[in-house]
Amino acid sequence: MGIARRHFIQSGVAAAAAPFARARAQPAPPIRIGVLTDLSGQYSDTAGATSVACTQLAVDEAMAAAPGLAVEVLSADHQNKADVALGIAREWLDRGGVDVITNCNNSAIGLAISDLCRQRNKISLNTGAATVELTGPKCNANLVQWTYDTWEIAHSTGIATVKAGGDKWFFVTADYAFGHAMETDLARWVKDAGGQVLGTIYYPFPGTTDFSSFLLQGQASGANVIGLLNAGGDFVNCIKQAHEFGIRPPSIRLAGTAAFINSIHALGLETAQGLTYTECFYWDLNDRTRAFTKKAVARTPGNYPNQIQAGDYAATTHYLKVVQQLGAARAKTSGADTVAAHEGDADRRRRIRPRPDPHRWAPHPSGVPVAGQIAGGEPWRLGPLPDRADDADGASVPAAQRGPLPARQGLRPRLADRDSCGWQALVCAPGWRAAARDTKTLIPRVAISEPWYETA
Known about the structure:
The chain is α/β, with parallel strands linked by helices.
């Protein structure tokens, strides 16, 4: 009887201990990345499923390189509505174990998600929203601004177009955060270059499909450039309708501010002739961009990656490098600390090329004219852009065109490395006075998209 009792007690102790043994054996929770993007609306081609695929590509490569790393990718459709996006994001952060929200290819949504991640101490890895406010008054220690912003696009497209003779502008502007930020920045650079802004008209976003009255007002204004301060389906519709009304070069130029190769492909080169736009990534620029594109297109055969989608890959790649450096458990504990881990690496700083404004660091874009014929039967090739190899530090602007910046109250830049992706990002913390520094002025080079992108 005593043996049976001892056996029963030992069995009970073992059974009670079993859950603890299992708990000790359980792996750490995976890193979860939520891609919050437009999967069904007018921005779905320029982000959407291809952004999800490029994020997953980066995750697959990272896990293959580090077998102990566990990462999951979630995706959801924000429908270009900030309230819908916030509802999804709260569910992800509060109950879904999501550590990073990325893409957010709508500036109103990008601003809302950045603030929510600050409140929850998670990470907003912004690759799609362009408003400059993200790295200005709305900047915070949980935000990484990747890919591009309205400052960069406006500077490149605006100055290049004015220098080419397009000095009288009329803006057709999407009436939300991106459009207003782009208008402010573009007007500044057009005027600084010696041009004029003759008028602006705002249209409701989203939901507008007929742009004829806005375009005809631009034509009647006396402008020789109509600046399209929109993107995605709105941009494509504007170009098509302008073409139908005969609003085209040489009488009136059309300038895209957030145009993408996907939009040019949708339009066709005949309709898009004469358009000037700015991109940070072009798939056929060099061997590295072609190698990345080959991997991406294998997962999204109907769509070539643009600057946002390449940015999704690059940003995720660099985030996961930091996760490996810190360890997944520590990276999940504090978004702000994970973001701050980019700071202090002298080798990374050496390879970053600063932009003229100490608030933001980003790729060096150029005004890219849509010209020439489809080359070699490839419908995604824009025309005669030369093949250019990337250089070690991204320096491509002559020293004579560089100059120091005055000291100003600003945001402290913390820089992401570019050893495998060539991308440059800004992470911000308030309260730092930027000292004068020797920077390279962003000079747009028409017909040459500046090299920046590397793959491992």
